[in-house]
């Protein structure tokens, strides 16, 4: 069980989050990269949807690390504080981006000769997106800000997080159960998506995205529990983690295995291997560039699709061919907009919500 002392941020994991965000950025432009880059790099970009699965596991890991100690007993006050903290973290930027996306159907109406408003810009879906419930299983499509589907499922995971904490803490009191639990959850992921009849964990997001998120979120929580009881051994275990991660990647690629068979367990080993900053190889992700990309990664992830829409609208011809100039404009615009949104919206918005909550609490106490 985590102690009551504050646990310092694990900076290599912040850097990993930045790398994962940019993997998604590249993925959503991979059709334009394909003719310009080597096949191996094109294949890597085309699997960028897996960064979302890494996000889910990493999110469960980090939230368990920081908040599990507050749910030794489930109380309404503790639940409220947790949800306010998560709301402050994700909603101000989400709402801002939702409002910005209204520009798209307006532009279609004003400037496109063959564009039809509807479909991707369905008003019902927009309302659901505002309330972060658009990917809770009721919709048959993804629309508007496509990547926001995962924010919707994460919001659901936040709602059940305290109960998952009680389940993990209650059922896994002995550390000898932790590795079997990780293996069992990874096996359940494989069996679930095999039973769904999908070839990839990234298929049919509108139907299976919520399950995909919550079960991998829980996997990250159990992995964190394992980390907390074995962190003094990490310096000895890191070769095992690194070899395990490499093995899952190589077997998936060269044996053409389904991505949901081994990679969730592989991502767990990657996270565990990066969780001790004393080691040499986590320093690759602990450098200032990757850490800053991690700090602004939520802005990057949430806004890059809007940038993609407009780069495609303004700069890509009808034949769908984009040169390096267009690609560099896309990447630069994503980075600059991420920096601006983080410093002008995301960070101040988070502080604003928390201040409001603090003032209300103080007023009640008075």
TrEMBL record:
Entry keyword set: Membrane, Transmembrane, Transmembrane helix
Coiled-coil stretches noted in the UniProt entry, renumbered to this chain: none
Full protein name: Peptidoglycan/LPS O-acetylase OafA/YrhL
Record field: transmembrane: 20-37, 49-70, 90-111, 155-172, 177-197, 209-228, 235-254, 260-277, 289-307, 327-345
Organism: Aestuariispira insulae
Domain of life: Bacteria
Domain Acyltransferase: 14-342
Metal-binding as UniProt keyword: no
